[in-house]
């Protein structure tokens, strides 16, 4: 009997290890395939765009032999498949070429400006989650009421109104008229050299150095673009929270909890929302990734010196190395967050591990 139980347990362990290995293999294949697809898309976009990288470097008035020599140095005279393999090899090593606009390696520029984008997207996601989840819960609990309709209209506006139009209105009203916020940019020139950036996240650096006047100035600069992104994040998070909560509130365990005499507050916030929190983690992570990649217009409107503004300026100056490098970084971050979200979802919800 003991021998039979041992064999059964061994088979279960073997099956579990095999399932884990297959899941890990599928995960790796997904990562590699997605990233190679991203590399292919950015490469062919760079070749389709009617901008000659050689001319962008030497200028339109350069002699033909100089242009041809630069094309040979860049490998643009090689067959397309060879150019693609060279591009993949360089991209995988973090080499996206040199920026025509700044004359720095593109990756150096990206490492300099990307923390500003992360800081802005983090503030937006925080605002969206803090306000979006309670609004979604309220809409679900008061389904069909005026409160529900108001929350749904707020979400609809967030999905429908162009972000550049709303950003311009916000600047006119809160900056030009009321003077509640600072002018576009990240920090006032008076405080630009008052603290030493260490991590690239100015709010954290200034707070760590206890430069509270700088922290206040940074807050006055980030609050308006952060709130704008937060509003669009709120629209998505509140809508999904409402959907998840409606599903949970219709489950049998909610009926059983009410039958036991538990308070409605405890049922909503400690039972229904707790079970809805697992998919909400995915929603918040995807919202964060969306703000990282979708902050180009916001950064342009508010002159926020992040990756979005860097890509916009590079595109206007035909700096395709910088444009493609920035696109690759944003795409890689988006892929990474999606995969991390999938892992986190499987960790928090054991029911999905066998899928």
From TrEMBL:
Keywords: Cell membrane, Membrane, Transmembrane, Transmembrane helix, Transport
Membrane topology label: Multi-pass membrane protein
Keyword Transport: yes
Compartment list: Cell membrane
Pfam families recorded: BPD_transp_1, BPD_transp_1_N
GO function term, MF aspect, one: dipeptide transmembrane transporter activity
Entry-linked InterPro entries: BPD_transp_1_N (IPR045621), MetI-like (IPR000515), MetI-like_sf (IPR035906)
Entry keyword annotation includes Iron-sulfur: no
CDD domains, per the entry: TM_PBP2
Domain ABC transmembrane type-1: start-end pairs: 114-345
Chain segments annotated as transmembrane: 20-45, 120-141, 153-176, 218-237, 276-302, 322-345
Gene Ontology cellular-component terms listed: plasma membrane
Coarse class of the protein's main subcellular location: membrane
SUPFAM superfamilies, sorted: MetI-like
PANTHER family given in the database record: D,D-DIPEPTIDE TRANSPORT SYSTEM PERMEASE PROTEIN DDPB-RELATED, DIPEPTIDE TRANSPORT SYSTEM PERMEASE PROTEIN DPPB-RELATED
Family the entry assigns: Belongs to the binding-protein-dependent transport system permease family.
Protein name per its UniProtKB record: ABC transmembrane type-1 domain-containing protein
Record lineage: Bacteria, Pseudomonadati, Pseudomonadota, Alphaproteobacteria, Hyphomicrobiales
């Amino acid at each position: 009997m003991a021998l039979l139980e041992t064999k059964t347990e061994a088979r279960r362990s073997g099956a579990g290890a095999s399932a884990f290995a297959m899941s890990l293999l599928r995960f790796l294949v997904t990562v590699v395939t997605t990233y190679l697809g991203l590399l292919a898309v950015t490469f062919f976009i760079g070749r389709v765009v009617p901008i000659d990288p050689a001319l962008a470097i030497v200028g339109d008035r350069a002699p033909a032999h100089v242009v041809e020599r630069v094309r040979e140095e860049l490998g643009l005279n090689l067959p397309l498949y060879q150019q693609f393999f060279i591009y993949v090899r360089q991209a995988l090593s973090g080499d996206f070429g040199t920026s025509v606009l700044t004359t720095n390696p593109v990756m150096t520029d990206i490492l300099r400006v990307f923390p500003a984008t992360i800081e802005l997207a983090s503030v937006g996601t925080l605002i969206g989650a803090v306000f979006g989840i309670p609004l979604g819960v309220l809409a679900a609990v008061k389904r069909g009421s005026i409160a529900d309709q108001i929350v749904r209209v707020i979400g609809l506006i967030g999905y429908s109104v162009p972000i550049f139009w709303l950003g311009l209105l916000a600047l006119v009203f809160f900056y030009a008229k009321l003077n509640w916020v600072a002018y576009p940019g990240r920090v006032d020139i008076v405080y630009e050299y008052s603290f030493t950036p260490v991590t690239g996240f100015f709010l954290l650096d200034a707070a760590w150095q206890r430069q509270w006047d700088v922290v206040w100035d940074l807050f006055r600069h980030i609050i308006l673009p952060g709130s704008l992104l937060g509003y669009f994040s709120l629209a998505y998070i509140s809508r999904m929270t409402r959907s998840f909560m409606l599903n949970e509130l219709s489950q049998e365990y909610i009926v059983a909890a009410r039958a036991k005499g538990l308070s409605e507050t405890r049922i909503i916030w400690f039972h229904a929302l707790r079970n809805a929190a697992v998919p909400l983690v995915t929603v918040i992570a995807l919202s964060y990734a969306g703000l990282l990649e979708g902050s180009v217009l916001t950064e342009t409107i508010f002159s926020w010196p992040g990756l979005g503004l860097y890509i916009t300026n590079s595109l206007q100056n035909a700096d395709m190395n910088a444009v493609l490098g920035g696109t690759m970084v944003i795409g890689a971050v988006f892929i990474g967050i999606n995969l991390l979200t999938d892992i986190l979802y499987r960790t928090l919800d054991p029911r999905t591990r066998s899928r």
